[in-house]
Amino acid sequence: PSIIEADKNVVSNNKTEEKHVSATTKSDPNAAKETPKPAIKLQAAEHSKDNSTAGRKPGVHKVISLDVTDTPRDANAVGQFGQAALVASSEDAEVRKRWDEGHFNVYLSEKIPVDRAIPDTRPEMCAQNLVHDDLPSTSVIFCFVDEVWSTLLRSVHSVLNRSPPHLLKEIILVDDFSTKDILKEPLDKYMSKFPKVRIIRLKEREGLIRARLAGAAVAKGEVLTFLDSHVECNVGWLEPLLERIYQDRKKVPCPVIEVISDKDMSYMLVDNFQRGIFKWPLVFGWSALPDEYIKKHNMTISDPIRCPVMAGGLFSIDKKYFYELGAYDPGLDVWGGENMEISFKIWMCGGEIEIIPCSRVGHIFRGQNPYKFPKDRQKTVERNLARVAEVWLDEYKDLFYGHGYHHLLDKKVTDIGNLTEQIELRKRLKCNSFKWYLENVYPDMNAPLVKAEGLIFNRGVRKCLALQKDRLLFETCDLSKQSQHFNYTWMRHVRQQDICFAPQGKGNGFALQLCDNTKAELRWFHKSSNSALAEHLIAEYVSHHMCLEAGAQGDTLRIGPCEPSNAFQKWQFTHYHAQ
Ligand code: UD2
Ligand code: MN
């Protein structure tokens, strides 16, 4: 998201003007379906300085803007109130030396109080919202591997200091086999002062996915709240999340993720109306809601935002519902892909993911993972994503592979491990198709199933290809004839049904074969951006300089050396969806 410097003066929680109930309590204009539990009609809170007695209606109260750091002991401390902290240039070397411990300014972080105050960045109306008195309690789960001491502590303190105690069942720290000594006895000792904090230590490195599962397995709260171990939860962050789950247990709310600068540790806010999305090949990103959508649904900046995919690190989920969904695929290793998995699963199997603007948590975004991957990082992430694609994407998985991960196919799908259980789970839950997800949850995503389709016109012969009785011939072009319709797919196949174009061996011949994603010889380069051979079909398996060519009489097909101006090597599809 584009980042805006926080207004450092906005620290007060005492927003005085009367406000109507919004966001967490009014019926949500952009929700897909009705929420089962809004039995109480909520009204605007009466104005009161004392939050604890604020809600006058029985059963509800004004959101608790609890913040014990409000008047900090050390107002002049470095980084206090979330302000940018500076280090003297004489300390630069030290900063650099310590940077790699966490891939952020570790040296500076140590100087900042572990319980510093940060600006209350919520939209103003948030402090006036009503929430139910009987919200479910939550277990907050932090998993970490070799996290920096100061940020781990600050994360824990931000939860302890800014969560209503009766809603915070416990904080579970899952140590994913860290190597640093300070995270052992010293951490045990430090945390022993806080009865709500429990530490679990894994006996080997499991990765964040299985570490979270280990935390969830022992959690006692009704709701699980997952957080990264380098965050700062803001004022009033928890109740708005729990309120959504109270209204509908299949809602999975995420706070707005604000940015704690990796360089100066300042707390920065992000643009409004941002939601999580993905691009191919399943790369997470942020994108603003389209303006028309905001207008059409009359949305204000504090309304929940439907979110096609979550960033992954910060969310609350009803514990029973988490397990009904099969939790995470435990076959996902170390880092990556689990956010796609749980997002598709939630949406396709009847739930919803929302970003709740009245709940805000700062996170240090790092340029690199500060820990080692047991195996190659890229391969680990790709393998995780391929597992997700195989289980959840249906026919759209070609778009995933087609955008860069062919080598996974070449090695055959078995390399990504057994998926039987995940596929069974999807059947058992009777989940919707990925097509349904695209149409209903992420309709502004353009996801054509093929790169090009229609007739294939040869510029030299000036006729179109037709498939007749397992043979290709040229015919006068005729859109009404199915035999002349072909696809150019994301796997770079030229195909009709399950028949694919192929070179014959590595020679000059041409043949038709049964399509098979794992066969490299079936792939043809076509319309590769602005090349001289843009209209050619290059048989990349034979050589990157060998092209499909029609005989001058239009009676043969062969593979010959590519020639930019040879019209008999130029093939045009009727429609191109993507290049
Ligand atoms: C984002 C998510 C993160 C996770 C990840 C994809 C946010 C803010 N963060 O990356 O939660 O969804 O995308 O997988 O949305 N960790 C372990 N064991 C490991 C590796 C990591 O315990 O083997 C811990 C790590 O210490 C941290 C958490 O998992 O607390 C997330 O890791 P990260 O901060 O490196 O992930 P991030 O923010 O780059
Ligand atoms: Mn993180």
Name the average pLDDT. 89
Q: Compute the gyration radius: what is it? A: 28 Å
So how many helices?
14
Shape: elongated
Portion of residues in beta strands equals 15-25%
Give the structural class.
Answer: alpha+beta
Features:
8-stranded antiparallel sheet; 6-stranded mixed sheet; 14 helices; 24% strand; binds uridine-diphosphate-N-acetylgalactosamine
Could you walk me through the main structural features you see in this protein, from its secondary elements to its overall organization?
The chain has 579 residues and is α+β, with helices and mostly antiparallel strands. The strands form seven sheets. Strands 16, 17, 18, 19, 20, 21, 22 and 27 form an eight-stranded antiparallel β-sheet that branches. Helix 3 links the parallel strand 4 (138-144) and strand 5 (168-175). The chain is elongated. The two termini are 27 Å apart.
Explain the layout of strands and helices:
Layout (H helix, E strand, L loop, with lengths): L2 E2 L55 E3 L29 H8 L6 H6 L18 E3 L5 E7 L4 H14 L5 E8 L9 H7 L5 E5 L6 H11 L4 E5 L3 E3 L4 H10 L3 E10 L6 E4 L3 E6 L3 E6 L2 H6 L8 E2 L8 E4 H6 L13 H11 L3 E13 L12 H16 L4 H6 L3 H5 L9 H9 L5 H7 L9 E9 L4 E6 L2 E5 L10 E4 L4 E3 L2 E5 L6 E5 L9 E2 L12 E2 L6 E5 L6 E5 L9 E6 L3
Parallel strand pairs: 4-5, 4-7, 5-6, 9-15
Antiparallel strand pairs: 1-10, 2-3, 7-14, 8-15, 9-10, 11-12, 13-15, 16-17, 16-19, 16-27, 17-18, 19-20, 20-21, 21-22, 23-24, 25-26
Manganese (II) ion binds next to loops.
